[in-house]
Structures are given as C-alpha cells and as structure tokens.
Amino acid sequence: MPPKIPHTTRRLFLGSSASAAVLAGLPIRAQTPAEPDIPLEDYTPEFLDAAEWAFILAATARIIPSEGEGPGALETRVPVFIDRQLAGDFGAAVDLYMEGPFVADADPFLGTQSPLTPAEVYRQAIPAFDAWCERTQGAGFGALDPEVQDAALQALADGETDLAPELRDFWALLLQNTKEGYFADPMYGGNAGMQSWIYIGFPGARANFLEWVGRDEVYPMGPVNIAGERA
C-alpha cells in the first residue's frame, strides 16, 4: 500500500518518522545552505525550473504545513534541500543500481523498476500530475485550495492520478525527500536553524549525551549541527 497523507497531529507524524529520516542513508552531497535571511521566493534553484519550484513549495507546504504545532516545511526550507539533492548525486542516481532490464509496471513489491533517475522522475511527474489536477480539479496543483490539494496528494499516494508506470514512485520520493529535508543536518540546505530538531528535542550531532539517556525529562542543552553550531 502507498504511504498515506498524515491526518494526525504533526507531532505524531513527525515523531513516528524522525528516527528513520535522520538515520537513513541520506544523499552524500552536502552544500553550504542558503543564507537564512533570503526568502524562499528569492532563492534561485539549482535544478528545478520555475514551475517545478512552485509545485515543490506548494506540495511540501501541505505535507508538513505551517499551521499548528512546530515549524512547517517552508520555515525549515525543505524545498531548498530537495532542489539541491536533485541537482547532485541523489538526483543523478549515483548510488542506485540503474542497469536494466526495467519492468516499470511490475508488482510494486519487487521494488523500484523505473529506468528514470530521481531527478528525471521529478521532472516528468510534476507536469504530469499538474495536468491531472487541471483535468480533474480545474486548475494546476498550486492554484487549488488547501483542502483540494490534500485530496489531490492523497490520490497521488493511492496511485489514482494516471501517472505512467515509470513515475509511480513519485509520491514515495516526494514524501521521503520532504522528511529528509525537514530532519537532516542543515548542511544539506533544509532544517533551517535546526528548528525541527528543537521541536522534537533531538540533540543533533553532540559528541556525548549518554548521561541523559533514559531520563524522563526534556533535554535542556539544545541541538548542535555537524559544523559544531548550536541552535
């Protein structure tokens, strides 16, 4: 079954996925993050074109919205993370086995069968999904009301948007990369100000905090990133 759009609180959703996202094999390409005082609307994407960037802004804002508890995807600059990863080794599938044969419409339980790199999946799936939104909802994804956007993303997660078989992993990629951008070290471009770590109480890259393991109290020191900067 494809992963569903979360309808619980953000804390429950993020808490259930934080450890997996932080400890998963993140793409190895790290870059200096954008200056925090540059608004997202003034950021110049490295990979995404204007329409793709607008979609990523809108989609990630619905996956981890700004309203409610904790920072949202836009406050933590998740779109910057996604753009930079698509521009680098992750987008080019450097660490993925990409030799054929490919059977794109094979049983999903057999794993990824697309001949496309992650960057190519994004490049082809975004306009295809936008076209589906226009046909079924009367407007492109970014122009829809938030509730309709949520329903459209749920249809994408459920495989109901008529994407070509080689693009069927788009939702899984988008959800995975949104989580990674939210929880990864800021050196990758997301998690601006270590806001998500502060929110969930994660200590970050501190050398030692064993004395706090198992203590039923909030960790008081705040997180540290890989560069040694304190939140």
Largest sheet: none
Beta-strand percent range: under 5%
Oligomer: single chain
Order of helices and strands: HHHHHHH
Number of strands: 0
Q: What's the mean pLDDT score?
A: 86
Share in helix? 25-40%
CA-based shape: globular
Instruction: Report low-confidence residues grouped into runs of 5 or more.
Output: 19-35
Structure notes:
The chain has helices spanning 10-23, 50-63, 78-87, 118-137, 146-157, 170-183, 195-200. Residues 19-35 have low confidence and may be disordered. The longest helix is centred in the middle third of the chain and has 20 residues, at 118-137. Helix content is 39%, strand content 0%. It is globular. The protein is mainly α and 231 residues long.
Short description:
The chain has helices spanning 10-23, 50-63, 78-87, 118-137, 146-157, 170-183, 195-200. It is mostly helical. The termini are far apart.
How are the secondary structure elements laid out?
Blueprint: H1 10-23, H2 50-63, H3 78-87, H4 118-137, H5 146-157, H6 170-183, H7 195-200
Helix pairs in contact: 1-6, 2-3, 3-6
Comma- or semicolon-separated keywords:
single chain, 231 residues, mainly alpha, 7 helices, 39% helix
